[in-house]
C-alpha cells in the first residue's frame, strides 16, 4: 500500500468518525441535542405506548399541539412505514412495548444510567438503525411526568434548531379548510324575496313592558311577526331550517293559538319555545326563554387515578385498585386530566351532562378480585369574586389577574385590566381568572392580548354577518336598550350609527346582504409569558372570545371547567312583538370552527379539568410543583415564597355576615321606632307599607342588604301597626256596645 493511498484512507476514516453523532445524555439542557440538521415535521414522528402517549398529551399543551403523527405501539415491532423517519420515543426501559425498543438501542451503561435517574428526566440521541441520516431521540424518566418533561425538552431543542415554531406547533383550533366547509358556509347565507317591514314598525319602544293578556288574534299576529324577524334578521335561520323546520313550527303554533280565546304573555312565550326547541343557540331568547342548555361538568372529588402497569389505578381504604370498567364500558372516556390539591397530575372521574347523572358504576380489581364502587358525581355552584369586575392578587408568588366581565359600563376597571398585560409581559407566568365572565365587548381581551404579545389575535371562525334592515334596526334597538339601563355614552353613539345605516336601507340606497365569508388566519403568536386561563361554565360570549383568541399564542394553558357555549352565533339585535311586547334577542352573525365541531351548549374544553372552586389554588400548586411547565423557568424568588391557598368562600361568608348585620340593624331600628310610636298604630302601619315599597325597589336595584332590611322592618311595622289598629277599633266597638 503506497503512502498516498494510506493518507487518503486515514482522511476518509477521520471524516466518518467525525460525522457520526455521539450519543448524549441531558437532564435539563437541550444544547447537546443537535440532530443531523434534517429534521422536519414531515419526516419526524412520535412513538409511545398508549399510556405514555395519552398522559403526555393530556398534561402538555406543547406536545398536544405538535403537527406530528403520534404512533401508538401495541407491540414491540416498529412499523415499516416509519423506519425511514426521525423518531422521538417516549418511555422507560421497563415500559410496555417501548421498553424493548429502548433497551435494544442503548448500551448497558446507558440503560444503567437511565434507570438510576430517579429525580430528573433524560434525553438520549441515537443514530437510526434503519436509515442513514435519521435520528432517534429517547425521552425517558422514572415516571410519566418526567418522561413528559424529557419530550418537551427534546422538542424545544429540535424546534430551536429547525425553525419556525409554527411549522411544528399548530394553534388549538386550527384545522384544514376544505371545500365542504366553504359550500356549507355559503348555504347558510340565506336570501328572501319579499320586502322588509318599514323602519317605524321595526323600531322598538325600550320602555314598553309585556302585556298581561292578549287575544288569540293578537297572539297569532305576534307569532307571524316572530317568524318574519327570524327569516329576515336571524343569522341562524338557515342553520336550523334544513328540513323546513320553521314553516312546520309556524303551522303548529298558529293552529294551537286558535284553541283558546286569549293568551297571557308567559303562555305565548312558552308555546313559542316549545315548538322552536329544535334551535340550539345560547344567544337567542324569546321572552324569558333561552334556547340552550349547558352540559355541565359533573365530577368526583374522592378518587384520584393514575396510569399503572395494567391500567388506571387508585387507592381506597389502604388498597390499590385498577379500574376495569365504568358503567360496563372501558373507563377511558370517563377519565378527565386534572390536578389535585398538591398540584399533582391525576385523572378525575367525570362526565358532561345537562342534568344530574346517576352514580357511576365503577368495577375495579386488586389481588383479592373485582370490587364494585358507586361514585356519586357533583357539579360546581361557584360565583366567587363575581362582584369584582377587576382584581389583581399575588398567590404563592404567582400573579393572578381576575376579570369578571367585558361590559363597556366599567371602563376604568377594564383599562386597569388591560394595563396588567404591559406590566406582566416578559414574566414567567400569569394566571388570568375569567370565571363568571359572561362577556361584553371583545375589544378588551383583544387589547390585553396585544399588550402581552404585541400582536392582534384574530377570530378563529369562518365568519359572516347578516346586514339587512331588520338586523341593523335590531342592533340600534339593542344599543338603545342598553343605553337606557346603563347610561354608557358610547351606546348612544352606536344607536346613531346604526340608525343612519337603517335609513339607507329605508330609502333604497343600501340593499340587504351578507358580509363575508371571512376565513380565519391563525398564525402562531410568539409568547414567552406562560398564561394560565381559568374558566368555568359561566364564561360566555366575549369571555369565550378571549379563550379562543389567546389560544393562538404560544404557552397558553386553560384550567377549570368547560365554558357556557355561546359560540356559533353572535352580535345581538333586539326586537319586540307588537301586541304581547315580548322581547326577542337574536344574533345576526355566525362563526364556524374549521374542524366543523358544533360547540354550542358544550363550550370550550379546558386543558386540565379542575372544579371551579379549586382551579386557582390547584393551578398555583401545579406551577410550583412543575406539573404545569412554563416557557421560562420559575425563579427561586417565586418558589421560595409561602403559599397559603386562598379560601374561596371567605368573601361569601364575609358578605353574608355583613348582610345579616345590616338587616338586623334595620330590624332593630324599626322595632325601636315602632315601640315609641305604638300609640299611633295607623302611623306605624302606614310607614311599614312605605318601607315595604322602598325595600322592594332597592332589592330590584341590587341593593340587597338595605332593601331586605327595609322589607323586613316594613313587614314588622305593617303587621304590628295593623294588629294594634284592629285592637283599638275592636275596643272602641265593644265600648260602644
Any idea what the CATH architecture of the domain at 20-167 is? 2-Layer Sandwich
Q: What's the number of extended β-strand segments?
A: 27
Q: What would you call the shape?
A: globular
Helix content percent band:
25-40%
Number of helices, counting only DSSP H or I runs of 4 residues or more: 21
Please state the oligomeric state of the protein chains shown: single chain
List low-confidence stretches: 1-32
Structure overview:
With 737 residues, this protein is an alpha+beta fold. Among the domains are: 20-167, Chitobiase, domain 2; 296-375, no CATH class; 650-736, no CATH class. Helices cover 39% and strands 22% of the residues. The chain is built from 21 helices and 27 strands. It has a seven-stranded antiparallel beta sheet. Strands 1-5-6-4-2-3 form a six-stranded mixed beta sheet. A hairpin with a 2-residue loop joins β16 (360-366) and β17.
Based on the model shown, name its key terms.
22% strand; globular; seven-stranded antiparallel β-sheet; six-stranded mixed β-sheet; single chain; Chitobiase, domain 2; 737 residues; alpha+beta
Task: Give the helices and strands, then pairings.
Blueprint: H1 3-19, E1 25-26, E2 44-49, H2 50-58, H3 61-64, E3 69-73, E4 86-90, H4 98-105, H5 108-116, E5 122-127, E6 135-140, H6 144-161, H7 179-187, H8 199-202, E7 213-215, H9 216-233, H10 245-257, E8 262-264, H11 265-275, E9 281-286, E10 289-291, E11 296-308, E12 311-316, E13 319-326, E14 335-339, E15 345-353, E16 360-366, E17 369-375, E18 390-395, E19 398-403, H12 411-424, E20 429-433, H13 443-453, E21 462-467, H14 469-486, H15 489-506, E22 513-518, E23 530-535, H16 542-550, E24 556-560, E25 569-576, E26 583-592, E27 608-609, H17 615-625, H18 636-639, H19 650-676, H20 681-700, H21 704-736
Helix pairs in contact: 2-6, 9-10, 10-11, 12-13, 14-15, 19-21, 20-21
Amino acid at each position: 500500500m503506497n503512502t498516498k493511498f494510506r493518507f487518503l484512507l486515514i482522511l476518509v476514516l477521520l471524516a466518518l468518525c467525525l460525522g457520526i453523532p455521539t450519543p448524549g445524555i441531558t437532564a435539563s439542557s437541550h444544547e447537546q441535542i443537535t440532530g443531523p440538521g434534517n429534521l422536519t415535521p414531515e419526516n419526524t414522528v412520535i412513538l409511545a405506548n398508549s399510556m405514555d402517549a395519552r398522559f403526555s398529551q393530556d398534561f402538555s399543551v406543547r406536545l398536544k399541539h405538535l403537527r406530528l403523527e403520534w404512533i401508538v405501539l401495541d407491540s414491540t415491532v416498529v412499523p415499516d412505514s416509519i423506519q425511514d423517519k426521525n423518531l422521538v420515543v417516549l418511555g422507560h426501559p421497563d415500559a410496555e412495548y417501548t421498553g424493548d425498543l429502548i433497551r435494544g438501542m442503548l448500551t448497558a451503561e446507558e440503560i444503567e444510567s437511565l434507570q438510576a435517574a430517579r429525580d430528573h428526566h433524560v434525553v438520549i440521541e441515537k443514530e437510526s438503525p434503519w436509515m442513514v441520516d435519521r435520528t432517534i431521540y429517547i425521552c425517558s424518566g422514572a415516571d410519566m411526568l418526567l418522561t413528559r418533561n424529557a419530550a418537551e425538552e427534546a422538542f424545544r431543542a429540535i424546534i430551536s434548531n429547525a425553525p419556525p415554531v409554527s411549522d411544528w406547533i399548530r394553534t388549538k383550533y386550527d384545522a384544514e379548510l376544505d371545500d365542504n366547509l366553504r359550500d356549507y358556509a355559503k348555504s347558510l347565507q340565506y336570501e328572501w324575496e319579499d320586502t322588509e317591514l318599514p323602519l317605524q314598525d321595526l323600531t322598538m319602544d325600550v320602555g314598553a313592558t309585556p302585556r298581561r293578556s292578549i287575544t288569540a288574534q293578537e297572539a297569532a299576529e305576534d307569532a307571524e311577526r316572530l317568524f318574519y324577524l327570524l327569516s329576515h334578521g336571524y343569522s341562524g335561520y338557515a342553520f336550523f331550517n334544513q328540513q323546513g323546520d320553521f314553516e312546520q313550527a309556524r303551522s303548529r303554533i298558529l293552529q294551537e293559538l286558535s284553541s283558546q280565546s286569549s293568551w297571557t304573555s308567559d303562555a305565548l312565550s312558552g308555546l313559542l319555545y316549545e315548538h322552536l326547541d329544535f334551535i340550539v343557540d345560547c344567544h337567542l331568547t324569546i321572552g324569558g326563554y333561552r334556547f340552550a342548555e349547558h352540559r355541565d361538568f359533573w365530577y368526583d372529588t374522592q378518587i384520584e387515578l393514575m396510569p399503572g402497569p395494567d391500567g388506571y389505578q387508585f387507592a381506597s381504604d389502604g388498597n390499590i385498585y385498577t379500574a376495569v370498567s365504568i358503567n360496563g364500558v372501558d373507563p377511558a372516556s370517563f377519565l378527565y386530566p386534572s390536578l389535585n390539591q398538591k398540584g399533582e397530575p391525576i385523572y378525575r372521574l367525570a362526565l358532561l351532562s345537562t342534568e344530574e347523572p346517576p352514580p357511576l358504576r365503577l368495577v375495579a380489581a386488586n389481588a383479592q378480585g373485582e370490587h364494585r364502587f358507586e361514585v356519586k358525581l357533583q357539579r360546581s355552584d361557584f360565583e366567587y369574586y363575581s362582584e369584582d369586575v377587576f382584581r389583581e392578587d399575588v398567590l404563592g408568588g404567582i400573579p393572578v389577574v381576575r376579570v369578571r366581565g367585558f361590559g363597556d359600563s366599567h371602563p376604568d376597571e377594564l383599562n386597569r385590566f388591560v394595563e396588567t398585560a404591559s406590566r406582566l409581559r416578559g414574566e414567567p407566568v400569569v394566571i388570568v381568572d375569567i370565571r363568571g365572565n359572561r362577556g361584553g365587548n371583545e375589544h378588551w381581551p383583544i387589547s390585553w392580548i396585544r399588550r402581552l404579545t404585541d400582536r392582534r389575535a384574530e377570530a378563529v371562525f369562518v365568519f359572516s354577518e347578516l346586514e339587512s334592515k331588520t338586523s341593523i334596526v335590531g342592533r340600534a334597538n339593542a344599543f338603545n336598550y342598553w343605553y337606557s339601563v346603563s347610561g354608557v355614552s358610547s351606546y348612544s353613539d352606536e344607536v346613531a350609527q346604526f340608525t343612519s345605516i337603517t335609513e339607507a336601507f329605508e330609502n333604497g340606497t343600501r340593499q340587504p346582504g351578507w358580509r363575508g365569508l371571512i376565513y380565519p388566519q391563525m398564525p402562531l403568536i410568539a409568547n414567552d409569558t406562560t398564561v394560565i386561563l381559568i374558566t368555568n361554565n359561566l364564561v360566555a360570549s366575549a369571555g369565550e372570545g378571549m379563550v379562543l383568541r389567546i389560544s393562538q399564542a404560544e404557552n397558553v394553558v386553560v384550567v377549570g371547567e368547560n365554558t357556557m357555549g355561546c359560540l356559533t352565533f353572535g352580535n345581538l339585535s333586539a326586537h319586540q312583538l307588537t301586541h304581547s311586547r315580548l322581547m326577542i334577542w337574536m344574533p345576526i352573525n355566525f362563526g364556524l370552527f374549521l374542524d366543523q365541531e358544533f360547540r354550542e351548549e358544550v363550550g370550550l374544553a379546558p386543558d386540565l379539568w379542575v372544579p371551579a372552586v379549586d382551579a386557582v389554588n390547584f393551578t398555583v400548586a401545579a406551577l410550583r410543583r412543575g406539573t404545569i411547565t412554563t416557557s421560562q423557568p420559575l425563579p427561586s424568588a417565586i418558589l421560595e415564597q409561602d403559599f397559603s391557598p386562598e379560601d374561596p368562600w371567605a368573601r361569601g361568608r364575609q358578605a353574608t355576615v355583613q348582610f345579616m348585620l345590616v338587616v338586623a340593624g334595620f330590624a332593630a331600628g324599626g322595632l325601636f321606632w315602632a315601640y315609641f310610636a305604638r300609640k299611633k298604630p295607623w302611623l306605624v302601619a302606614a310607614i311599614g307599607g312605605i318601607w315595604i315599597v322602598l325595600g322592594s325597589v332597592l332589592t330590584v336595584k341590587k341593593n340587597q342588604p338595605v332593601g331586605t332590611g327595609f322589607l323586613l322592618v316594613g313587614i314588622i311595622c305593617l303587621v304590628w301597626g295593623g294588629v294594634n289598629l284592629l285592637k283599638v277599633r275592636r275596643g272602641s266597638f265593644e265600648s260602644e256596645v
